[in-house]
Design a protein that fits this description.
Chain lengths: 381, 500
C-alpha cells in the first residue's frame, strides 16, 4: 500500500493561484515554423502576466531524434545534475545529452542549468509496463526524490522551455525565434499572486508529450489531486495546473478515452442538460460524470492542452475565463485575447469564442495521428 | 421503595393566564399535568416531567414555563449530579440504565472546529440565484475506469447507481421504534425531495411499498420483515452490522410495542419481544459478510446497490476496506453521537469514536488502497445542520444520514425518552393515542422544507467556494481548515490549521 500521506505531504505544498495569458497555434498541414510569431503574440498580452513565469511548448522540433524521449531537465546544482544523470544512465540508454542552448538576456537573472537528454527505454528495464509508464515513473522519481532536479518535459519530438520572466524574454533566452521549427506551439505568461520564483513552477506543465497552459484557479484542485494520487500521480509542482496534465494523461493515454470525451470529463454538461439528451448519449454522459466526477475541473479556467498532433482549447463550463479561436487556412489559433491572434494574422477566415465547456480541437491533417481514424480536420466537438 | 430521585424540572403555571382548558393534561403522556376536580384547578406532578415542552407548545395562553429544577448539589467535579442520580436510579431499579437519542456528553464535536473557505478576488464566487448549482449525487459502486468503443459508445456496464438530489438521507429508524405515521412522513418526504429514507430493521409496512423507489430497506441481525418482496421493492438494501449509539450490542423492542400491525410487518407474533442479536449470527467474519452481500445481490438480480452499515469504532478504516472488498457498494459509518430508540446509557455515552475522525480515516485509507471509487461513503451520527453536511462532504463523504434532525423537524424536542414509548410528540411510540399526533402530510411537508432549506444553504456555500457541482467539494479537504485542533487531530482529519 502506498502511503500517500508521506509521499505528498498534504501540509506542505498547495496550489498557487494564478491569472495568465495563454496562446496556442497549430499548422494543421504539418508545416513547421519558428517561435517568432508566437513570441510576438504572447508579448502582446504582456499585461496579463507579471514576469514571474513564462514558457512555451513546441511540437515537431526534434525530427532527427523523433523516436527518442526528449527529457528537458532543470538543475539547481551540479550535485543534482550528477545524481539525475546517474539515475538516467541506470534507467535508460542515453542517446545524446547536451545543454539546451541559451543566449543572455538582461531580464533573466540567475537561471538554472537546463539540459536535454534523448533517451531510449530498454524493454527489459520496463519490466512489463509500457515504455510510457516507465518514463512517467522515472520522471516522478526525479521530481520527488532527486534534489535540485526537475523535469520540464519528457515527450518525443517536443520540448518545454520555461522559466521565471516574461514569456517573450524566456523565449529569447532559449533562442526560440529561430533555433527551432515546430508545427504546434503553446505559450503562457503568468501572473501568480504567490510565487517563490521557481523555474519549475512556470507553465507549460508537462508529462510525456502532454503539455498544459492554463489561466485560472481550479477550485476543485483538492479532490482532483486526491483522485489522481490513487493512480500514482504525485503533485509536486505547487500549482493547480499540474492536475490538468495528469488528468489528461490518465484519461487519454491510460484509459484510452478520445480527446473530445476527455473534455467532457473536465467540463461536463449540467445534469439537467444530460437529462434532455437522447438515450445513448445520456447514458454515456451520466456514466462519465458518475465515474470521473472527481476530475471535473471546477472554478474559472481556460486551458490549451497539446500533445503529438493535437491541440485542444477548453474553458470551464460556465466560462469564467476568456478563450478565442481563430482560423486562417491551415492555421488554428487559440488565445486569451483576439488581439494577439490579429497581431500575427490580421485577416482571419473565422474567429469565435467557444461557449463554456465546449472543446475546440485542432488536429494534424496527415501524419501519425490520422492513423487513429478520427476526424482529421479541425473538429468543433 | 421511596425514590430518592429529585424532580428534574419545575412547572410554573401562571394562574392569571391559565384558563383551565386542560390541553396540558391531555397532551402530556407522562402524567405530569392533572385536573383536580375538587378544587377545579390544573396541577402538576413535577417529578414526572421530562422536559419535552409539548404542553408549553400547545398551551393556548402561554401559561406554562418549564425550567430546570434549580437543585444545587454541593460542588464536586467528580460527583456531578448525573453521576449521583444514575447511581440512585440503579440502586432503586437494579437494572441497566436505558436511554434514548444520541450521546449527550461533551466529547469534542469536530464539526465545530472546522471552517470553510470562500473565493476572494482570484476566482469569482458563483451566485446560485443566477448560475446552475448541482447537488445531485449518485450512490453505488463505480468502475475504476470507463471503456469506450471507437464510436464513442459505452463498453463498460456500470453497477446499479442511485441518484439523490440532495446529499442528505433519512437514517434507519425502525417501525416499532417510531410510528407508522413517522415512517410515512419520511417516505413521502424522501419521494418528494428526491432522496432516500431507510426503513430500519423493523420491516416495511405494506402501505409504504408505493414509496419503494426512495426506500432503503434494512437487513439486520433479527431479520425482521425480510422477504423477497421487501428486498425487491427497495432501491437500496442495507445490511446493518452496528449502530453508533450502541456498537457491539443488539436491540430489544419490548412486547408492549409489538402491536398487530408491527407484528405483521416484522413477521413475529403479536406482543412478543423483538430481540435483535448483537452480531448477525451468520456473519462472524468478513468472508461471511461477503456471502450475505452476494446473497442479497443474487436475490435481487444485481439491480440494487447493497450497503453495509457499521458503527464507527477504532479500526473502522481496516474494516471498511474489507467491506468494500466483500462487495459492499455503499459504506455507512455511524459515529458516537448517533442516536437510538433505546440503548444502555453507558454504551451510548462511552463506546465508539467521533464520526468526523472515522470518516477522515476511512476515506484516506480507501484512497491509499485505490478503492475509494468502488463504494460510496455515507456518514451519520449527530449531523445538525447544512454546515455539518458540507463539512462531511469536504472530508470525503458522498452523503449523510440524518435521524435526530429529521425527528426534530417533526416536533421532537430531544428529551431522550424514546425508550419509554411514551413520546408526547407521537414520534417514538406505537401508542395509537399518541401516534395520531403526527399527520404524515404535514410531517412530509416539514421534512421537505428542512431539506429545501439545507439545499439552499449548501448551494450558497458551494458557490462561495467557487464550485458549481458537489463532486468538486467531495473529499476536497483543501477547502477546510481547523481551529483549536492539535497536530494529531489535523493529521487524522487531513486538514490544515486555519492561517496555513
Amino acid at each position: 500500500m502506498r502511503n500517500l500521506r508521506q509521499l505528498n505531504n498534504p501540509y506542505g505544498e498547495d496550489k498557487v493561484i494564478a491569472a495568465c495569458s495563454i496562446f496556442g497555434v497549430m499548422d494543421t498541414s504539418g508545416r513547421r515554423f519558428t517561435g517568432k510569431d508566437v513570441l510576438r503574440a504572447i508579448a502582446n498580452m504582456h499585461v496579463r502576466g507579471n514576469g514571474l513565469g513564462g514558457g512555451l511548448a513546441a511540437y515537431g522540433i526534434y525530427p532527427d531524434y523523433a523516436e527518442f524521449y526528449a527529457l528537458h531537465i532543470m538543475f539547481d546544482s551540479c550535485e543534482g545534475k550528477d545524481a539525475t544523470e546517474a539515475l538516467l544512465n541506470n534507467s535508460f540508454k542515453v542517446v545524446k545529452a547536451e545543454e539546451v542552448p541559451t543566449q543572455p538576456h538582461p531580464a533573466i537573472a540567475s537561471p538554472p542549468l537546463i539540459w536535454r537528454y534523448f533517451v531510449e527505454a530498454n524493454p527489459e528495464q520496463c519490466a512489463g509496463i509500457s515504455a510510457d509508464d516507465y518514463v512517467v515513473a522515472v520522471v516522478m522519481r526525479i521530481n520527488t526524490e532527486v534534489e535540485d532536479s526537475f523535469v520540464f518535459s519528457s515527450g518525443k519530438n517536443m520540448g518545454v522551455f520555461k522559466g521565471v520572466g516574461y514569456p517573450e524574454d524566456i523565449g529569447h533566452y532559449f533562442c526560440l525565434e529561430d533555433a527551432y521549427k515546430g508545427y504546434c506551439w503553446t505559450a503562457h505568461g503568468r501572473f501568480p499572486t504567490n510565487s517563490r520564483g521557481w523555474w519549475g513552477g512556470a507553465h507549460p506543465f508537462s508529462i510525456l508529450d502532454w503539455t498544459v497552459v492554463h489561466n485560472g484557479e481550479i477550485s476543485s484542485y483538492g479532490i482532483n489531486r486526491r483522485y489522481l494520487e490513487q493512480f500514482g500521480y504525485q503533485c509536486t509542482l505547487e500549482t493547480d495546473t499540474e492536475v490538468v496534465a495528469y488528468a489528461v494523461d490518465l484519461l487519454m493515454r491510460r484509459h484510452g478515452l478520445p480527446l473530445e470525451v476527455v473534455a467532457r470529463v473536465l467540463a461536463p454538461p449540467l445534469w439537467e442538460q444530460i437529462e434532455r439528451m437522447p438515450d445513448a448519449e445520456r447514458e454515456f454522459m451520466r456514466a462519465l460524470r458518475q465515474v470521473y466526477g472527481s476530475l471535473l475541473l471546477n472554478g474559472p479556467f481556460a486551458v490549451v492542452i497539446a500533445h503529438e498532433g493535437e491541440m485542444i482549447g477548453l474553458t470551464d463550463r460556465i466560462r469564467l475565463r476568456p478563450l478565442t479561436v481563430g482560423e486562417k487556412g491551415d492555421m488554428v489559433y487559440l488565445s486569451s485575447e483576439e488581439s494577439a491572434i490579429r497581431l500575427i494574422s490580421p485577416e482571419l477566415d473565422r474567429v469565435w469564442s467557444p461557449v463554456g465547456g465546449e472543446p475546440v480541437v485542432a488536429r494534424l491533417k496527415s501524419g501519425r495521428r490520422a492513423s487513429r481514424g478520427r476526424s482529421s480536420e479541425l473538429a468543433k466537438a | 421503595m421511596k425514590t430518592f430521585m429529585p424532580a428534574k424540572f419545575t412547572v410554573l403555571r401562571d394562574k392569571d393566564r391559565c384558563i383551565g382548558c386542560k390541553v396540558c393534561v391531555n397532551q402530556c403522556s407522562f402524567d405530569t399535568h392533572y385536573y383536580d376536580a375538587d378544587d377545579d384547578e390544573v396541577r402538576s406532578r413535577e417529578q414526572n416531567c421530562i422536559g419535552c415542552h409539548r404542553c408549553v407548545t400547545f398551551c393556548p395562553t402561554q401559561a406554562l414555563t418549564i425550567s430546570r429544577n434549580p437543585l444545587d448539589y454541593r460542588e464536586n467535579f467528580n460527583w456531578r449530579p448525573e453521576n449521583i442520580e444514575d447511581i440512585t436510579k440503579q440502586a432503586e431499579s437494579g437494572g441497566m440504565l436505558l436511554t434514548g437519542m444520541g450521546n449527550d456528553k461533551g466529547q469534542k464535536i469536530y464539526w465545530d472546529h472546522l471552517v470553510l473557505n470562500a473565493s476572494q478576488v482570484t476566482n469569482p464566487s458563483i451566485d446560485p440565484l443566477r448560475e446552475p448549482m448541482e447537488l445531485r449525487t449518485y450512490l453505488g459502486r463505480k468502475p475504476d475506469r470507463l471503456e469506450v468503443s471507437s464510436s464513442a459508445g459505452l463498453k463498460t456496464k456500470l453497477p446499479p447507481q442511485v441518484a439523490i438530489e440532495v446529499p442528505v438521507m433519512f437514517a434507519a429508524m425502525s417501525y416499532g421504534a417510531i410510528s407508522i405515521n413517522v415512517h410515512e412522513s419520511l417516505a413521502r418526504a424522501a419521494s418528494e425531495a428526491g432522496t432516500l429514507w431507510n426503513t430500519g430493521e423493523g420491516g416495511l409496512h405494506q402501505k409504504l411499498y408505493q414509496y419503494g423507489k426512495n426506500t432503503i430497506v434494512q437487513v439486520a441481525s433479527g431479520r425482521f420483515g425480510v422477504h423477497p418482496d421487501y428486498l425487491n421493492v427497495a432501491r437500496v438494501i442495507e445490511i446493518k452490522i452496528g449502530q453508533g449509539a450502541k456498537p457491539g450490542i443488539g436491540g430489544h423492542l419490548p412486547g408492549e410495542k409489538v402491536s398487530a400491525e408491527v407484528s405483521q410487518t416484522r413477521m413475529i407474533p403479536q406482543g412478543t419481544d423483538a430481540l435483535s442479536p448483537a452480531p448477525q449470527h451468520d456473519i462472524y467474519s468478513i468472508e461471511d459478510l461477503a456471502q450475505l452481500v452476494y446473497a442479497l445481490k443474487e436475490a435481487t438480480n444485481y439491480t440494487k446497490p447493497v450497503s453495509v452499515k457499521i458503527a464507527a469504532v477504532h479500526n473502522s478504516a481496516a474494516i471498511a476496506s474489507g467491506m468494500v472488498r466483500a462487495g459492499a457498494d455503499i459504506i455507512v459509518l455511524d459515529g458516537i453521537r448517533g442516536a437510538t430508540g433505546a440503548a444502555p446509557k453507558v454504551i451510548r455515552d462511552n463506546v465508539g469514536i467521533p464520526i468526523e475522525l472515522a470518516l477522515a480515516s476511512v476515506d484516506t485509507r480507501l484512497r491509499q488502497e485505490g478503492i475509494r471509487q468502488q463504494a460510496s461513503l455515507v456518514v451519520s451520527g449527530g449531523i445538525r445542520n447544512s454546515g455539518d453536511v458540507i463539512k462531511a462532504i469536504a472530508l470525503g463523504a458522498d452523503a449523510v444520514y440524518v435521524g435526530t434532525a429529521a425527528l426534530i423537524a417533526l416536533g421532537c424536542h430531544v428529551c431522550q425518552q424514546c425508550h419509554t414509548g411514551k413520546c408526547a410528540w407521537g414520534i417514538a411510540t406505537t401508542d395509537l393515542r399518541l401516534t395520531k399526533r403526527i399527520n404524515p402530510e404535514i410531517g412530509a411537508q416539514r421534512l421537505v422544507n428542512l431539506l429545501r432549506g439545507w439545499s439552499l444553504e449548501i448551494k450558497d456555500m458551494l458557490g462561495g467556494l467557487g464550485v458549481n457541482a458537489i463532486e468538486s467539494l467531495r473529499g476536497n479537504r483543501l477547502h477546510l481548515r481547523g481551529v483549536g485542533l492539535t497536530d494529531t487531530e489535523l493529521r487524522i482529519l487531513g486538514v490544515k490549521m486555519a492561517g496555513e
